[in-house]
Amino acid sequence: MVYDIDMLRSFYSNFPKRVDAARKHVGRPLTLAEKILYAHLYDESDIRPFRRGEDYVNFRPDRVAMQDATAQMALLQFMNAGKNKSAVPATVHCDHLIQANMGAKTDIATATQSNSEVYDFLKSVSDKYGIGFWKPGAGIIHQVVLENYAFPGGMMVGTDSHTPNAGGLGMIAIGVGGADAVDVMTGMEWELKMPKLIGVKLTGSLSGWASPKDVILKLAGILTVKGGTNAIIEYFGPGAASLSATGKATICNMGAEVGATTSLFPFDLNMAAYLRATGRDSVAEWATAISDYLEADMDVRAQPDSFYDRVIVINLSELEPHINGPFTPDAATPISEFAAKVKENGWPRKMEVGLIGSCTNSSYQDLSRAASIARQAAEDKIPVEAPLIINPGSEQIRYTAERDGILGDFEKIGATIMANACGPCIGQWKRHTDDNTRKNSIVTSFNRNFAKRADGNPNTHAFVASPELTLALTIAGDLCFNPLTDTLKTADGREVKLKEPEGTDFPPKGFEVKDNGYVAPTGKDAGGVIDPGSNRLQELKPFAPWDGKDLIEMPLLLKAEGKCTTDHISMAGPWLRFRGHLENISDNMLMGAVNAFNGKTNSVLNQLNGEYEAVSAVAKQYKAKGISSIVVAEENYGEGSSREHAAMEPRFLNVKVILAKSFARIHETNLKKQGMLALTFADKDDYKKVREEDKISIIGLKEFAPGKPLTAILYHADGTEESFAVNHTYNELQIKWFKAGAALNTLLLFP
User: Fold this and answer.
1) 422-474: per-residue pLDDT in tens?
2) Rg (alpha carbons) of the chain, rounded to whole number
3) Per-residue b/e over 89-116, b at no fewer than 16 CB within 10 Å?
4) Distance of CA 692 to the CA centre of its chain
5) Residue 325 confidence (pLDDT) above 60
6) Minimal CA–CA distance to 258: which of 161, 393, 154, 158?
7) What is the DSSP track for 57-96?
């Protein structure tokens, strides 16, 4: 089925002339990313050569997608915007609130009952405002979007950091916070700094155990977790055309792990085949008709160094399977070197659980390749040494895989088939273990592996690999096993080597599903009623505007040391149930961040009483007395998920400033949207000057202007003072957000 067909027909009829106009005004050949960006300018008359990494540009995305955890806050904000209907096609997907525990049927029933208030709210608000609703069990947002909504040349935003998954179908798809989604849904311009462009040329073709996942695992090792910040990764070259659409989606999905704004591939025959296989023949026909516009211009492909800010070449024929981790997704190691690294670092060698699925690797192709390994294990009677968990990507994938015997192949070796949901990938995993604090190792086909993310255990060493390699290690139960070279012992004592994985891009008998879980909106004027006594949902009240004064002598709330991701700032797992209740979820604020002064988490000095208390508890006491506070942090603050709660919680608890060495893109934007100051050290060594008992002032706000530094003054407990410059990236519009108290407030003040 083709959703929003009128919008798509209009899009493809207008896209070529918009690209031609952009090429004329820019005065040179264009990359694919540039074509799509320029074709989506909010004001078509505002075509000019925007400076990458400098100019803020207003865009008009084609659609919005929201997952249930972030949709709550997004829709609560949209309800305050005074609109009757979303200005663009939008959808809500119930995939985050289902805990993986006993298996799909039981877990969906449990989630439906325990989250009924939230699901009813999301469904009713979606119905009221013309938003499509995907029920619990329908599938993971990004797989469902790929199967139903993603289209070559389009542009969308999604309230999840892995929205770039849709780049597998040649779409610019960008992860954002809820406030950004509200901008698009209200018909306002959506602002983005013109991204830099990283070109990745793929040559050769994959074979054997190498998979599309290994492309991005290798690239993560090259770029690191912040190497793609404020950049789009655009893949091209002969190797790109050899990859399936879902393989491309896997690569684009994990571009979030290097901080990229998004990633995308040029349109090709594999994309057209996927569109047809998923019932979108007309979209395949329209895209094929303008295929020259859906790839970089010929001169760009011939001389990429002249058009991209950086070019990286990866030969797929030489690519070795990789395993990344632990604790960070950019710690990349080829399989041939991994065993030595395990031993050298003293990582727990026993592999205790294998997990296959997530938005990154849960396609039919992924499952079919892994299933071929499972079949051999069953046929050769190779004992499986670790538990195996499978999360299909969508109900369509699950139903088809069950019909074709793929799920049965997994079940024959003891696998548990969980719901078509995120589950363990986002901490929604009720892990059955003897001790959830001890050191152990797991291997997943997920995208992130930060400490405590999957199971809440800070000592779980989580490693990221392809589904097929994950399954091989699950069978062996040994991190040092290399299926390319090593053998396994069968039940009757024979030594056998696992065969290379085999699979198909599409099911031989086509996709099939009885109920895909979609509920179309009716436009009834009844949604959004919130029980005042609810502990899951809370009416959202606008934040207060700036009082026109400098921020004087704010007590230091926390000086965070080391990695501080959105998981550290606003944990998921059990806290997901409060995503629609800002006051309740604020109790988890920064509880995972390490205090630089005592090396502990959730233990900071309360300057009111001299005691060490939880971060949120101290912030609440400051707020109760009308005292603002400040947080100081290191590099890439806010790395990871797009969750805007990591910005809204500090805002709610009267934290006025985050002063860091650098920010992750989405989080910096989220802070700005919520009316906070996101500042960086002009000299990163000034971080060392901040002391535990400091009170800190930010001076110069009355002259707050783009490109003009502010001043931080440290008032030390011994009576001495130090001052230094702090930078910001605010433009005129973002300064208005700050002064109004939040971006949404500007909409309320100037509808």
Assistant:
1) 999 999 999 999 999 999 999 999 999 999 999 999 999 999 999 999 999 99
2) 25
3) bbbbbbbbbbbbbeebeebbebbbeebe
4) 33
5) yes
6) 161
7) EEE--SEEEEEHHHHHHHHHHHHTTT-SS-SS-EEEE--S
Q: CA torsion 520→526→532→536, rounded to 10°?
A: 0
**How far from chain centre, in Å, is Cα 472?**
27
**Partners of residue 711 on adjacent β-strands:** 699, 725
Instruction: Name the residue type at position 396.
Output: Q
Catalytically active residues, by annotation: 95-96, 160, 448, 641, 643
DSSP category for residue 521:
-
According to DSSP H, which parts of 633-742 are helical? 645-652, 665-673, 732-740
- Decide: helix, strand or coil at residue 277: helix
pTM over 0.85: yes
Order of strands, sheet of 63-67, starting from the edge strand that comes earlier in the sequence: 172-175, 155-158, 63-67, 90-93, 132-134, 518-519
Q: Which helix (H) or strand (E) holds 198?
A: strand 196-203
Residue 700 token pair: 């110069």
Going by pLDDT thresholds of 50, 70 and 90, the confidence category of residue 751 is very low
pLDDT in tens, 509-526: 999 999 999 999 998 878
3-state DSSP call for residue 556? Answer: strand
Other beta carbons within 10 angstroms of residue 246's beta carbon come to 26
Distance of CA 561 to the CA centre of its chain: 23
Q: How far apart are the first and last CA of the chain?
A: 36
